[in-house]
Amino acid sequence: MSYYISPRFLDKLAVHITKNFLDLPGVRVPLILGIHGRKGEGKSFQCELVFERMGVEAIHMSAGELESPDAGDPARLIRLRYREAAELIKVRGKMCVLMINDLDAGAGRFDGGTQYTVNTQLVNGTLMNIADNPTDVQLPGSYDATPLHRVPIIVTGNDFSTLYAPLIRDGRMEKFYWLPDRADKVGIVKGIFEQDNLPSGDIERLVDTFVNQPVDFFSALRSRIYDEQIRDFIHNTGFEKVSLRVVNSAEGKPNFSKPNFQLPRLLEYANMMVKEQQQVQNSGLVREYNQALLGNGDRPNNNSPGANNDRPAPPTPKQPVQLQTEPKQQAGQFHYSDNYFNPLANYNEVLSDRIGLETLERLRRDLTQGYHIGVEFVDKRRFAMNSWQSCGQIITGESEAIIAIESCLLDHEDDYVRLFGIDPNGKRRLWEKIVHRPK
């Protein structure tokens, strides 16, 4: 199967890779090429096709490798993979690149709930250091004076505005926004359906009908066409025997005839997929669940029309929480009866002795003003290295704070536990306080 390579994509990648292997006098070449754009548009796959056509070998990393329980591991891994790529260039005598997929997912900051860990700082610092000194990349604890071969770095992502700004400056990273135009998309879809003998006119109509869908939508559509045959195979074989028939069967793996790939059938399945997408968008259950969990009714809505988002709302007077003896049901509210435990009723008694009354008051005041609260822990060994780990999600509601803090204190009695306030607009920490130390 011959897949389509966009001429724009091929030119951009080929120029960047080749330029990094040339010695241009007086020219500072950015080491990193950042390819960003909408999800599902085939950024990584187009890179693979270009590498194959140019005979370039790629050393791969993913966003999932940019975090670790041990501080420094991801940064060391980046250096190790870079040196591995440089060694391949020396040994095999061919171009090699280091490719990091979805960099923004591993090192980006999307909102106030994103944890900015020590590893995130080290990953950013390591990539900047490599971009500034591409021939002198050392591993921690050792030093090799032999210069390395320069290795181009290709990174992909959806939103590079979430990355550390000094990392993506023009001297270190060259940016390429990938959004396939109609000609590119038609060519890519032709490659997907090449084995199915779909006429060019039908492919163009399919692309024009679903013009807002990404490239991977059409790849998933081709896979969906096989569902009916596979469903018939499962029913004919029997649910109890499918595993024996498919995995390690003496009869070999089952063969399926080519399904009907005519345009009306493709449009039918494509419309079904679009309806499924809309159902996900329209359900909105997360908003309902989070309102019940976080107590959004007690917090000001900073997104409402006329709200001043630059200045937090003033704190409301502290009101005592009473336990209801009889259940009362009102619109949008639920009151506990005396048969249920209301955690807010024992808020002061439960937490004031554990974290201190002053910290408790500041915590409640920050939550009332729309700020967020975070909880972290660290064991005795990593306390000296200041390598704290998150105890869970960022806290945005008062009832959630009770459960999260109490749970973390109970689970980490032998560790240090600290609280900190977060300004969600400025994305910065306001204060930190260690509330528990190991005995």
Automatic annotation (TrEMBL):
Residues 319-329 have a biased composition (Polar residues). It holds the Pfam family RuBisCO_activase_AAA_helical. Residues 293-329 are annotated as: Disordered. Keywords: ATP-binding, Nucleotide-binding. GO terms for molecular function: ATP binding; ATP hydrolysis activity. The keyword DNA damage does not apply. It comes from the Bacteria. Residues 347-438 form the Ribulose bisphosphate carboxylase small subunit domain. Belongs to the RuBisCO activase family. This is Ribulose bisphosphate carboxylase small subunit domain-containing protein. It comes from Aliterella atlantica CENA595.
